[in-house]
Amino acid sequence: MFYREAGQFKTNYKDDQAVFPILQDRLAIGLFLIVAFVAIPYFGNDFFINSMMIPFLIFSLAAIGLNILTGYTGQISLGTGAFMGVGAYSCYKMTSIFPDVNIIILIVGSGCFSAVIGMIFGLPSLRIKGFYLVVTTLAAQFFLEWCFITIGWLYNYNDSGAIEVPQREMFGIIVTGASATPVTRYLVVLSIVVVMTWVASNIIRGRIGRAWMMIRDMDIAAELMGVRPLQAKISAFAVSSFYAGVAGAMMVFLWLGAAEVESFDVNHSFLILFMVVLGGLGSLLGSFMGAAFITLLPIVLGAIPGILGLHINAAALEHVKFMIIGALIIFFLIMEPHGLARLWAIGKQKLRVWPFPY
Amino acid sequence: MNVVTPQGEASLGARIVDDGIEPGAELLKVENVSLSFGGVKAIQDISFDVKKGEIRAIIGPNGAGKTSMLNVINGFYHPQEGTITFRGNVRTKMRPYMAASQGISRTFQNVALFTGMSTLDNIMAGRQLKMHKNFFWQMWRYGPAFNEEVEHRLEVEKIIDFLEIQSIRKTPVGQLPYGLQKRVELGRALAAEPSLLLLDEPMAGMNLEEKEDMSRFILDVNQQFGTTIALIEHDMGVVMDLADRVVVLDYGKKIADGFPSEVQASQEVIDAYLGVPH
Questions:
Q1: For testing the chain B interface, which of A207, A214, A352 should be mutated: the one with the most B CBs within 10 Å?
Q2: pLDDT (average), residues A276-293
């Protein structure tokens, strides 16, 4: 009823090419940002911020990274977990080598290391596609995990083999380490995620994003239109790994506080691939939806019996939770194989023409 | 049906391709080209030329090597023997994207559109080589990269007007009927402003009206933009009406080359199409 674009005329191509051409969408995004930046830090309790919002945002960023590679460029990868690890370990090394450099710069900078590693492991994509590429990225996953264990230099040769986050300040506020407040960490994560999402959407809409999608949809025709397959695929691997790397660095520095190899194992790669597939391949919004589904739903489901006043023993609750989530994943994928983002788009289209069917 | 406005025609007329070749001179020259896949000889010792500004048809029965010939011209296949001269440059081995940057554009026999993208994005994709703003500018979008985008949108809109596909501008091409998909594909090829346009069966699977539309577009492209066209087509009526010159292939060999009337009268061509008693 309120979602109408009637009367909103575009008189130049600039307006027509805008990210959100419809006024209501722009208002909704503004509202979302206000809630995220003001209301949640103000009203949210520590559990909500620390165990729900921060992981949700971090996994969203990782999912955006994988979506750039898989959803927009059509190269399936199972190495996301390891690329997150590269980001985390390089951020850890950099902060021990340069303790005085601003931690935000180090977190974003650690993405560059991940990008380089991603480019190297992306090279086979020039020759192989589909399932075969999955296998080579899986090799990257296991090789990098092996590096994280074997190369002691990466974790400063400490006995536990884990990386511990040191305390770092910015403008007198403690950002990382055990004494940083959840709200501070949340705001840092949120800012990075918002800016990087905006950048991702810019790249995707421009010449480079179009080249990626051309490669995805019809690589032969893409090459004929002047896209160099090597450049397009490798740049997608680089950007994707950059996002994964930053997400990994944030995961350790702004959420977990400490990590070892298990934090970056193949399960994480699968988890992020599920988020992307469930949320919608080739959709930034879908990355957020998929991440919300996988990270938030178990917590919400776990809280429901408590709210209802039911006493179920913890083990049974855990199993029921898995079953419900599994069933929901199957249900959504059967209902809409293109993911939650497509469902959302269909809903929006229905709303636009409501009360008429089309 | 809406017609291209005079204003539209004038602005399109200004886009005539300048590739340094005089009209009527040789734009593309294929000399003694042979291509084989293992024991299969797809093309055997074929020579022909395409002159600037003409519509050149390549015809022949199925399996004659027509599509292989196009693939050789734009670099998908590398011939074992022979040379190809395009715009005065002799080339041996090249990748398709290099052919694209030299000004060769094409459409495919089975529509090869980017199915996940809208009509507008598909045609914008054709301008890939004309856009140059680097990664840094793309990241911020608002600024030089966006201005470039809008600038090229204007060119794309001219093509959309020309092909009369305004109403499907924002439709994902996967949802379009076949005839329109073919038209979008022609638009994508035109967006690159090619000096040589290769059309692989532009009218396959179309009804009479769609064929007439497509013929009109091909003639208009040739006359208004001055684009040289090489096309493969099975509909003899269309070929004989559109083409300035025709080359006929059969079993990978050239059996005739000349004006449509000459080709039609050639006994070898008649035999190839109708068969000869053994």
A1: A207
A2: 90
Q: Is the residue at A270 inside a domain? A: no
Residue A77's SS3 state is: coil
Q: Is the ipTM of this complex over 0.95?
A: no
pTM for this structure? 0.90
Q: Could you tell me if B188 lies within 8 Å of chain A, comparing CB atoms?
A: yes
Q: How many CB pairs under 8 A join A and B?
A: 103
Residue of B150, B163, B159, B162 whose CA lies nearest to B126: B159
Residue range(s) defining the domain that contains residue A239:
44-264
Give the pLDDT score at B90: 86
DSSP string across chain B: -----HHHHHHHHTT----S--TTSEEEEEEEEEEEETTEEEEEEEEEEEETT-EEEEE-STTSSHHHHHHHHTTSS--SEEEEEETTEEESS--HHHHHHHTEEEE-SS----TTSBHHHHHHHTTGGG----HHHHHH-TTHHHHHHHHHHHHHHHHHHHHT-GGGTTSBGGGS-HHHHHHHHHHHHHHT--SEEEEESTTTT--HHHHHHHHHHHHHIIIII--EEEEE-S-HHHHHHH-SEEEEEETTEEEEEE-HHHHHH-HHHHHHHH----
Q: Smallest CA–CA separation between A220 and chain B, in Å?
A: 8
Cβ separation B128–A227 shorter than 8 A: yes
> Is A216 in the B-facing interface, judged by CB distances under 8 Å?
yes
CB contact under 8 A, B112 and A208: no
Classify domain B6-17+51-116+178-274 by CATH architecture.
Answer: 3-Layer(aba) Sandwich (3.40)
Please give the backbone phi and psi of residue A235, each rounded to the nearest 5 degrees, phi first.
-65, -35
Task: Give the pLDDT band (50/70/90) at residue A197.
Answer: very high
**Which chain A residues are Cβ-neighbours of B70 within 8 angstroms?**
none
CB distance A225–B128 less than 8 Å?
Answer: yes
User: Is residue A156 assigned to a domain?
Assistant: yes
Residue A6 lies in a domain: no
Q: Is residue A131 part of a domain?
A: yes
Number of independent structural domains in chain A: 1
Cβ pair B112:A218 closer than 8 A: yes
Determine, for residues B112 and A220 on separate chains, whether the beta-carbon distance falls below 8 Å: yes
Q: What is the mean pLDDT of residues B94-123?
A: 89
